[in-house]
Amino acid sequence: MSELYTKEFLFRLVIPLWVISFTTLSSIIFGLHSYRDGHEMARELAIFYAAVHRPAWALSLGWIVYACSTGQGGVINSLFTFKAFIPLERLCYLAYMLHVPLMYYQGGVQRERMFMGHYNQIMCFFSYTFMSFVLAFVCYLLFQVPFAAVEGLIFNKNHGNIWGANPMTVSQATLKNNDEEQVSIDEESKFSAKSKVLVSRIEETERF
Question: Where are the bilayer-spanning segments (predicted)?
């Protein structure tokens, strides 16, 4: 019954939401392509796009995050949790912050016009991406690692933090909660076993 419910839930809700999410994201990105050649968009359509595209983008990304965190991500979740992306994950925010100044600097030092064809756009994309992550790695070594070391000295688990409590990581807290739950389950099972023995003895006494 549960398997049928899961399959029914999958086909009736999860898959349509994935289709709607990808369709919305693709429409927001590529929907304006035909208007980049000088064609004027209708006023009603322009108002609708300006009012809806940001909330729709946020909701679509929110569904992807929710689906991946609840085990409904499938191949997308496997791609996002690929271990090779872990080093890049630590640099993504720095690369995001640095790529705009890098583009401004490139525009400032450029002394001649450049035709932005598809090939040039692809080359600019890869060059900006590569240089952004290189600069992010340098900033990570210069700023984030030293500050993390200072934070480790201040909140050292051996000496406790300023409130007198030892810090605990998420994994340690999870293990502690699992241990506490296991202890409570063991106690309940022991109590249940003792109750069964007591009930059986009472029944034997009543028979005699």
Answer: 13-33, 45-66, 86-105, 125-143
Nearest Cα neighbor of 157 from 149, 148, 167, 147 is 167
The string of pLDDT tens digits covering residues 2-25 is 454 466 666 678 888 999 999 999
Query: How far are the Cα atoms of 30, 120, 123, 130, 148 from residue 126, in angstroms, in the given order?
Result: 20, 10, 5, 6, 30
Residues 6+ apart with CB under 8 A from 86: none
Which secondary-structure segment (H or E) carries 127?
Answer: helix 118-139
C-alpha–C-alpha distance, residues 103 and 140, integer Å:
20
Reported pTM: 0.54
178: CB partners within 8 A, 6+ apart = none
Radius of gyration, alpha carbons of the chain: 29
Round to whole Å and give the CA distance between 177 and 50.
47
- What span, in angstroms and rounded, lies between the C-alpha atoms of 44 and 25? 21
